[in-house]
Amino acid sequence: MLHQQTSHGAPQEEEFKLKDTNPQLGERWPGGGASGWMGGAGGWFAGGSDKLTSTYDLVEQTYYLYVRVVKLGNYRGTTRHLEKKVNPEWNQVFAFSKDRIQSSTLEVFVKDREMVGRDDFLGRVAFDLNEVPTRVPPDSPLAPQWEAAGEVMLAVWVGTQADEAFPEAWHADTAAVQGEGVVNLWYLRVNVIEAQDVEPADRRRRGVAELFVKAQVGNQVLKTRACGGATAPLWNEDLVFVAAEPFEEQLVLTVEDRVHTGKDERRLDHRPVASQWFNLEKFGFGALEGDRRKELKFASRVHLRVCLEGAYHVLDESTMYISDQRPTARQLWKPPVGVLEVGILGAQGLLPMKARDGRGAADAYCVAKYGQKWVRTRTVIDSFSPRWNEQYTWEVYDPCTVLTLGVRIRLSTLETDRIYTHSYPLVVLQPSGVKKMGELQLAVRFTCLSVVNMVHLYGRPPLPKMHYVHPFTVNQVDSLRHQAMSIVAARLGRAEPPLRKEVVEYMLDADSHMWSMRRSKANFFRIMSLLSGAVTMTRWFADVCHWKNPITTTLVHALFLILVWYPELVLPTVFLYMFLIGLWNYRFRPRHPPHMDTRLSWADVVHPDELDEEFDTFPTSQPQDVVRMRYDRLRSVAGRIQTVVGDMATQGERLQSLLGWRDPRATSLFIVFCLCAAVTLYVTPFRVVALAAGLYHLRHPRFRSKLPSVPSNFFKRLPSRIDSML
């Protein structure tokens, strides 16, 4: 049923937690058994082998009946029609899942298209399913045989997902087979240097001409700044676009005319690319056509430097959930450090998403993305608990990346060579609140190929070198990412089967930059959670100084005296302490990958109006009074942030004023104190100074005053620039 989370209740929290599962994966299945079809409570078993041999070891072994032209119980499959052929060859394979077959007999018909709908047919053959042989790779494929008195040649066998025929087989319970898509993106850099002999479009126009270059690649349009007052303008500006292989779009530049670029040049490092001059062709009124272009003796031209940037990584997803950090050019790729294998087993408890025959229905498929490779399972028709049992593999070039498939799994949180089998809650935030749309059952394994290379990666920059040698501006990164997402969505929308644009945008987290009061609160409490450790340590030290626990304070005094007497032990002690803490925390390490946390996301207690604002369009489509109310609320929040930022600026300016003579008396006192401190520290051993300062801070409460300390009082009296603000 449709569920909405509204509080921190324990039963509701359990519903959104990750659940351990124990599926019967391929490597856990028993082998042996008799060959044939075992009806009722039995099933198919492989004969002639002690153990199932399969590469599908992260999915449940599902048996299929593989045939060509089939009419079986409530299932039916039909080959494509071949026109006017006496000896037609179809070479088509049909797969029928064991769980849905309701008959013990297989019937194969050969019909003429003209006889469809009649009882006449060219041939018919029936098989007893108990006699159908079982084939498990690496067994040799079954040779086809002539059946129905030589009317049709076919092969019938029982197999699993590991069968070579599985990927291209027509599945009776699905609408489309699984698909894979790879979109290779490049940055295209156009350095517009200058132009020469530019003729104005209207020679009679008076005044200073302002010339600029407009460049267009597909739907992407960028312009240089305007340069006026000359027929030889100088720009020297970079225009950066996103281009996708096989580079179907043209690069078009206009000053007042159009430029066609020739062969593209690719850059693999930061070394400069040679520039070229390009003649401008007239277009529009007065344009030269055909052979008349050769008669042109004088032409304007533009100086360009154009290259495809292969040393950058094209960002099409948020850097927080990045799945690939390699440069675009394959020549710069390093060897993979691991292999990621994902078994998409199935889903449970899916909610109806459409109406069919007066009832709710769901045609479910799963999409996964890692790196440049997108995969899509076959679509299971009309099922709220679909079973896919499909396995996919990716090469891993960096373990600090994220796999996205409805849920996000960070590879660095996975132990190597361990199979994680969990049921992930599909949590979706909707305008009505947070809802659980079902559960996704996965089996995940990360295998390390080179421990040395993987350890080396932890000291490398996350992105390729060019991102740091010649970085893009923040605005450029946002604009290029938006263009990259649009190109990926368009390409996958033309794939077969097509992937809807909203699915691609959800996978790439296209709305991560939009304002959300809920996310702002969640991020604030994340910061508070980080600071809570420092606050806890400060409170503990205050308790030590106030002798709340005399034994602890005595031990701290002893440790302090040892470190003062042997200062060379300070750093080793700190690192040893962190080592012991890490060793102690190993007992409490996470046992499963992180998952969506409704409490961390602040999604279970969010106000309905804040959710409505989060899902509002941009620009807003709400009535004026609602917009005014939200604007006032935003002003209130921004006012508090403004106060905090102002207080931080005030403290910094007070620190600057210590030596800035804004308060002559305070600065005089401070520099005299600095002189006295310098002389004292020169003549006094460091151990004595450290011992005196430490014992002073750890003194007993009877020697303390409840008033603020002298340094604190002095600092608070220093001036800041707040007096000069309007």
TrEMBL record:
Span of domain C2:
11-142, 169-290, 316-440
Q: Which GO terms describe its cellular component?
A: membrane
Record protein name field: C2 domain-containing protein
Record's Gene3D superfamilies?
C2 domain
According to the lineage, what is the superkingdom? Eukaryota
The record's listing under InterPro entries reads: C2_dom, C2_domain_sf, C2B_MCTP_PRT_plant, C2C_MCTP_PRT_plant, C2D_MCTP_PRT_plant, MCTP_C, QUIRKY-like
Identify the stretch(es) annotated as Disordered: 1-23
* Cell compartment(s), UniProt: Membrane
Q: Where are the transmembrane segments?
A: 562-586, 669-696
Query: How does the UniProt record describe the way this protein sits in the membrane?
Result: Multi-pass membrane protein
Q: Which SUPFAM superfamilies match?
A: C2 domain (Calcium/lipid-binding domain, CaLB) (SSF49562)
- Keywords per UniProt: Membrane, Repeat, Transmembrane, Transmembrane helix
Q: Which family does it belong to?
A: Belongs to the MCTP family.
Does this entry carry the keyword NADP?
no
